[in-house]
Every structure is written in structure tokens, then in C-alpha cells.
Amino acid sequence: MISGIIIATIVVAGVGVAIGFILGIADLKLHVDIDEKEAAILEALPGNNCGGCGYPGCSGCATAIAQGEAAVNQCPVGGAPVAQAISAIMGVKAEKTKRMVAFVHCSGDCEQATQKYEYKGADDCRFQAQAPGGGSKTCGYGCLGGGSCVSVCKFDAIHVVNGVAVVDMEKCKACGKCVDICPRHLIDFIPYDAREAVACKSQDMGKYVNKYCKVGCIGCHMCERDCPTGAIVVENNVASIDQDKCIHCDTCVSKCPKKAIAAI
Length: 264
What we know:
Blueprint: H1 2-30, H2 36-44, H3 57-66, H4 79-90, E1 100-104, H5 125-128, H6 148-152, E2 158-161, E3 164-167, H7 177-181, E4 187-191, E5 196-198, H8 206-212, H9 222-226, E6 232-235, E7 238-241, H10 251-255, E8 261-263
Antiparallel strand pairs: 1-4, 2-3, 5-8, 6-7
Helix pairs in contact: 2-3, 2-4
């Protein structure tokens, strides 16, 4: 009985030694040296793994930066402080970047825009867009208010307010998740210090816009004619602002008869 226990103990110990030996050899054969720069960059990154940099998480971004395949300011979430830290690790100068934030080009909420019918279904704009007529909203370009953008934002920076998505500019990190998921492509980036933006993307003629939205752009060209720097262009019946030319004079805001240009 005792000898059986001793034999079993020896066998188990022998197997353990053998496994440890094999693992030791495997570690030597399969060992991958850690790039110290890559590790330091990963430590400097915020760790949100949001994918806003265009790489699969912070580790992917760190690898790309360390290998010179991505800029030191590749991370939109970290902004200037993270870019400065990574530039010091890489021994290069970080280029000055302009902070960007998401903006929803629609202000046609429940009071301002009409509905064709009452939608009953999943709270997801992608599903709503597949509903009869492209959704319940009369405007075929407006925010559906299903909250797809809200569901993917990791920073609690966007919420549906009275049927329309609204971005909290202070919380937005410009990761791009909301931009990618919007089925009507209503969200894009504008500079954080922008003071005017066109809150409409309807390409319908003004006579139709007037029927379904109180704050929709009617393509009247008044903003375009009165802009002192030529920052506004009306194409396909809707105005757009070149933020690089805009001097924040608010002329377009005061001139717009439908208040489709928002003073941010």
C-alpha cells in the first residue's frame, strides 16, 4: 500500500519535471523579445481600445507607431498630451493637431420635423432605415433617433434628445464610432473651436423641406452670398461650411431664414 503511494508520487513528480523541462525549452524556442518602445507607447496610450486610431485596439496602435507605420499623434482619444508623451518615446517632434469633435447634421427633433407614421420596433437606426419608406421620419435625410450612435460611444458623449442625436463636445474624443454606424451619414467631425455648423443634410428642394421640417436647409443661398470669406457653399440644395475659411462672424447664423445653421 505504502509502496504504491510512493511509486505514484514518484510518477507524478517525474511527469511534473518532464512537463517543466518541455515548457522551458518551448519558452526558449518561442520567446519573442518585447520592443521596449512599443511597451512604453502602449503604456502611454489611454487604453480605451476604441479603434478610433484605425488599428485593432491600443496594442495594434502601439505596434504601428513603434514600427514607424503610424504617426505619434495617431490616437484621437489621447489628444495632444498623449502625442507629446509618445513623441518623447520615439524621439521625434509631435506635429500640432487640431482637436476635432463629432457633430450631428440634423436638428429636426420631434417638434420641428414631421413623421409619416409611428415606428414600433428595435431602437436601432440601422433597422429603422430598412423600415417602409426608409423610416418613420418624413425627411429622408434626417436623424432617425434610434440611438445606434449612442450604443457604440464609449465616452457617454452622444445622446438622443427629443428624437435627435446630440453630441456633448466636452466628452467627445473623436473616435469615429458614431460616424461609422450612422446609416444616414449625418455625423462627421468639425473642429472643437467651431462656432457655426449646418445642422441639416437634406438635398430636397426647399419647397419640400418647408413641408416637413421647420429648421431644414432650403438652399436659398443667402448664407453663401453674405459670407465675407466665401466659407459657405450651397450644393445639392444644402449649405456646407469650410471651417478653415470660417472666421466665426455669425453672419450665416443671423441670415439663415430657417435657422438651419447652428450657433454652437
